[in-house]
Design brief:
The complex is a heterodimer. By secondary structure, chain A is α+β, with helices and mostly antiparallel strands. Chain A is about 35% helix and about 25% strand. Chain B contains 15 helices and 19 strands. In chain B, helix 1 packs antiparallel against helix 3 and helix 12 packs antiparallel against helix 13. The longest helix of chain B has 18 residues. Classes of the chains: A alpha+beta, B alpha+beta. Chains A and B meet through helix 2, strand 9, strand 11, helix 9 and strand 16 of A and strand 9, helix 7, helix 8, helix 9 and helix 15 of B.
């Protein structure tokens, strides 16, 4: 029986989205977590190589595989609990649709990932791509209460739970958030929400990178705790110069007090954006990352931000850069070569700073790897975890590079 | 096997004073903060430095001897107990703050540093370490990492996992692994996140880099009285849904009614004052009979005293105490509190509820006199009934105390066999022989075989999971009141 016949027999005709042919890989869209488990259990028996996809807007759909597994039919939101500030959503729901449903309940997921608005939740969690809101609300993992995932050999595993405080058992959720699918396909996510902020204000200031870096330090030193404090390159901010953007979100009283603090720290130099301007500003910056061929993230101690930006400028250019200097995180996008990426990763490793390749064509991904230049003792642990969750190497994920 | 030769070799590493073999000395370490579990370790070793610790771990690996890491022993799950086949490694001498970097708001500490000492050291720089479990004057950061400790501040600022940036760990075989990066960005998969809360099963953290936060400049504390726990629980939900995140919201009973303590903090006095006014309105609208706002530090401390003394007061009710640590969805709190009341009545027991109202973490505590024949069995049955009610409400079995020995038997209530097996398989990546802190966290008999034996697929939509309930005899470990007769 052919692969397609087997899949149709297992999951039904409508699970096959694209039959393949002429060099294309068949795309299979299981409609339930159990169907995902069934498919991967069979893949393990048959030795099929599987690549993972969400909506197809972030990672290029170009990894060599026998079939593509897309989560896009796993798009239900079984629960939104405004009283508990938690929700349960399937991994294939688009972030834009999820955001609307949450807002209908007066709730908010404080994540603003790079990429197009329709990126799936599963993609954001699996790649741990947080945006500027990481300054005030933390990394992707800080918003995840639990996940259900399917291993490469078809086991359905739950970790965490749906309550906001939970230390029962090892926290496998942390492995799935940012595991790039190497340790399982995330099928269901329990989210920690916030109340939709009563006030949400964005302020921008254009200037030189040097001046704005200093100002960001002043803002932090003043004890201000904005939702976002983002230093953006001119191309990314669509301005003449570099831009420092500050987003304040919370109760009206809190935002008013922070705004006064920001005026004090900056000598009143920031310009407030109107609500729709602010929305467009942040959205365009996020979308820009999906328009360049390669994206990576890096991060060191806050006071090393400037040095890291210099290094990026020198080695790979700094046309498309967005940095949260308060937490030391930097995201880069653009075009560069495998050799330059490898060299940059080695240089950064020497400074005890990691480089995570977020998005690139397969030729670059497979050569550079999402991760690499591990610190002492980590490589064997990662290898062991991969064997544990994908014993047949069904998932085509470029965890590490080929160098 | 622990031989005289091994003890001699341990002495050679840490010195005779720091190897305890006399029964009276070992008895000191037979319990943690929970009185209901007791195990006497074969040998107690107190390494004086990271290098001594690593050398000890390597020696134990060479002799294939299990070991249990222990901090101050304030845990509430029996997690830091070692039996007669294991060596207890007490880490309280590894108590140096290695660096404190105010500009980057980062500190690097050894595992034995007492929690409150770090905040004290950071205070002159206007900083503090946010996770503040109630045992913070005694408990160690290493223990906090192992247990993913919470504390009053975690509702607003997050639990230990959100404050640990990087770890140096020594694995069971004595190898070193550097997890995470100094700035907190994961290096590869999030190994720091995976390690935190692994209850000592993945290895021992030898160096811990943590984030420090700026001390709040403004704080307001409110105390509100309600006619019932239900009303207090509903009021808290209303506050949280308003978008104001209190630092803390705790409920505890007083005079057949309920008291709610709420604390707000921030950078600006005006903002905190305005938020306090909003909270006052919300509490009043939800039936608060009276609300007091602390005007100054002294009054604030007075309001806190009732909460801090709640546990002590329960201890005075009777000679023995069972401490529970369930979590339920916040909105289910009122319902669950009433169910617990019914269970207490049915079993004719005194159950006092202290709860972190903000995050649904509740500590139903059962005071009893263990000398009364048959009472322990009754308390045990009531505990299980309470836990089942919390799980049925969508909750979990432990919010901050950890599984340890105490909650092993409840693990199958919330995780199926496949998920428990996955946890065990991950543990074996770090510790293939399961030699570090053996017998804790994952009930091994409730697991199924992992490697190469994935369940056979049955058909579309069929549940492949095998639910292992508490009724499954294979899932019920022996009663764990006393692992060793007292």
């Amino acid at each position: 029986m052919s692969l397609l016949d087997r899949v149709r027999a297992l999951l039904g005709d409508d699970a096959v989205e694209i039959a393949g042919g002429a060099g294309a890989v068949p795309r299979v869209a299981p409609a339930s977590p159990d169907a995902v488990a069934l498919l991967l259990g069979t893949a393990r028996e048959e030795g099929w190589r599987v690549r993972l996809e969400g909506a197809g807007t972030w990672l290029p759909a170009d990894a060599p595989a026998d079939l593509a597994l897309t989560t896009r039919r796993l798009d239900r939101v079984p629960a939104v609990e405004p009283q508990d500030l938690s929700a349960t959503a399937e991994a294939g729901i688009g972030c834009d649709l999820l955001r609307q449903q949450l807002a209908d309940h007066g709730t908010w997921l404080a994540l603003d990932p790079p990429g197009l608005a329709g990126r799936t939740l599963g993609s954001v969690v699996a790649t741990a791509t947080a945006g500027p809101l990481r300054h005030g609300f933390g990394a992707v993992r800080d918003h995840i209460l639990g996940v259900t995932f399917v291993t490469g050999d078809g086991r359905l595993v739950q970790s965490g739970g749906r309550v906001v405080k939970n230390v029962a058992g090892y926290d496998l959720t942390k492995l799935e958030a940012g595991g790039f699918g190497a340790f399982g396909v995330i099928v269901l996510v329990h989210l920690r929400l916030r109340a939709l902020p009563r006030a949400d204000q964005t302020f921008v200031l254009e200037g030189t990178r040097e001046d704005l870096t200093q100002l960001a330090e002043d803002v932090a030193a003043a004890g201000l705790q904005p939702a976002a404090l983002e230093l953006m390159s001119p191309a990314l901010a669509r301005r003449e110069g570099w831009v420092l953007a500050v987003r304040l979100a919370g109760s009206a009283a809190l935002v008013a007090a922070e705004e006064a603090g920001l005026r004090g720290a900056s000598g009143g130099r920031f310009t407030a954006l109107r609500a729709e301007e602010a929305h467009g500003f942040w959205m365009r910056a996020a979308e820009s990352f999906a328009t360049r061929p390669i994206t990576f993230r890096t991060g060191g101690l806050p006071d090393s931000s400037d040095e890291l930006l210099d290094l990026l400028q020198h080695q790979v250019g700094d046309e498309w850069v967005s940095a949260s200097p308060g937490v030391g995180a930097i995201r880069w996008a653009g075009e560069t070569t495998v050799d330059r990426l490898r060299r940059l990763r080695r240089t950064l490793a020497g400074l005890e700073v990691p480089l995570t390749l977020e998005r690139a064509p397969w030729s670059v991904r497979s050569a550079v790897g999402h991760f690499g230049a591990y610190r002492e003792g980590v490589g064997p642990l990662v290898a062991g975890l991969r064997r544990t969750f994908d014993p047949g190497e069904a998932f085509v994920v470029a965890v590490e590079g080929s160098d | 096997m622990i031989t005289a030769g091994l003890v001699e070799a341990l002495t050679g590493i840490v010195g005779a004073r720091h190897v305890r073999t006399a029964p009276a000395e070992r008895l000191t370490y037979a319990r943690d903060g929970l009185p209901t579990h007791r195990r006497v370790p074969a040998v107690v070793v107190l390494p004086g430095s990271r290098d001594e610790l690593v050398a000890v771990v390597r020696l134990l690996a060479a002799h294939d001897v299990p070991f249990v890491p222990r901090g101050a022993g304030t845990g509430l799950s029996g997690g830091a107990l070692a039996d007669g086949a294991a060596v207890l490694l007490v880490l309280t001498r590894l108590n140096r703050i290695l660096s404190l970097d105010p500009a980057n708001r980062v500190a690097v500490v050894e595992p034995g540093v007492v929690n409150v000492r770090l905040s004290a050291a950071a205070a002159p720089h206007g900083l503090y370490y946010a996770p503040d479990p109630s045992s913070q004057t005694a408990c160690t950061i290493g223990g906090n990492v192992a247990e993913n400790a919470g504390g009053p501040h975690c509702l607003k600022y997050g639990v230990t996992a959100q404050h640990v940036l990087a770890l140096e760990v020594v694995l069971a075989d004595g190898r070193i692994a550097q997890l995470g990066s100094p700035g907190g960005e994961p290096w590869g998969p999030d190994m720091v996140g995976l390690f935190v809360g692994s209850e000592g099963n993945f290895g021992i953290a030898t160096r811990i880099a943590v984030r420090l936060l700026p001390l709040p400049r403004a704080v307001r504390t409110l105390l509100a009285a309600f006619a019932s726990l239900r009303a207090a629980g509903e009021a808290v939900s209303a506050v949280i849904a308003s978008g104001i995140v209190p630092v803390y919201a705790a409920g505890y009973p007083r005079d057949a009614a309920a008291v709610l303590l709420v604390e707000l903090d921030g950078r600006s006095d005006e903002a905190v004052a305005a938020e306090t006014a909003t909270v006052q309105e919300l509490l009043a609208a939800h039936g608060a009979a009276s609300i007091r706002v602390a005007a100054d530090q002294r009054e604030r401390e007075r309001l806190w005293q009732g909460r801090k003394k709640a546990f002590g007061a329960m201890g005075r009710l009777s000679s023995d105490l069972v401490v529970q640590d369930a979590v339920v969805p916040r909105s289910a709190l009122p319902e669950v509190l009433e169910t617990i009341g019914r269970i207490a009545a049915a079993y004719q027991l005194t159950v006092s509820n202290v709860f972190h109202a903000g995050d649904g973490n509740l500590h139903p505590n059962i005071s009893f006199d263990a000398r009364v024949p048959g009472l322990r069995t009754r308390v045990d049955a009531a505990s299980t009934a309470i836990m089942e009610a919390c799980v049925a409400a969508g909750g979990t079995i432990t919010g901050e105390h950890g599984v340890g020995l105490d909650k092993l038997r409840y693990m199958p209530l919330i995780f199926d066999a496949e998920s428990l097996s996955a946890m065990r398989a991950v543990r074996r990546v770090w510790d293939p022989e399961e030699r570090v802190n053996p017998g804790k966290v994952v009930p091994v008999h409730a697991c199924r075989e992992w490697v190469g034996a994935a369940p056979r697929a049955a058909g579309p939509g069929s549940a492949q999971r095998t639910r292992v309930g508490a009724a499954d005899p294979g899932a019920a470990p022996r009663a764990s009141w006393e692992d060793v007769p007292a």
